[in-house]
Amino acid sequence: MVAVARRAHPDLRFDEGSMTALDLADGVLGGIVAWYSIIHTPPQRLPVTFTEFHRVLGPGGHLLLAFQAGDEKVHLEHGYGTRCPSTPTGCHLTGSPGCWARPG
Q1: How many CB atoms neighbour CB 66 within 10 A?
Q2: How far apart are CA 83 and CA 45, in angstroms?
């Protein structure tokens, strides 16, 4: 997916790394996309992951986080990249480890 992203957007930088030890300085990112990236992370390790996200995000930075809960299949009325009123539209990280979604 990184190779596809680089071809589609050669003017942007795309990197891979460990979510718990990103090879980046503090506060350098404007955004992080963690699209189903945490689904296999043990729950007790999530605070470490979210703390690392918070560390590398700059002031006003955004986190796009998606994950699955349960076994039910859900089909949204709108596709990716559009606002879905019944789903979270953003993530706000505070100084403490954790992530809370704001309803849309």
Answers
A1: 14
A2: 30
d(Cα 39, Cα 49) in Å, to the nearest integer?
Answer: 12
The predicted-structure confidence for 51-93, as pLDDT tens digits, reads as follows 999 999 999 999 998 877 777 766 555 444 444 333 333 333 3
How far apart (Å, rounded) are the C-alpha atoms in residues 79 and 44? 32
CA distance 68 to 73: 10
- The identity of residue 99, as a single letter, is C
Q: Give the model confidence (pLDDT) of 25-61 as tens digits.
A: 999 999 888 888 888 889 899 999 999 999 999 999 9
How far apart CA 104 and CA 85 sit, in angstroms, is: 5
* Tokens 């997916």 -> residue: 1
Count of C-beta atoms within a 10 Å radius of residue 29: 17
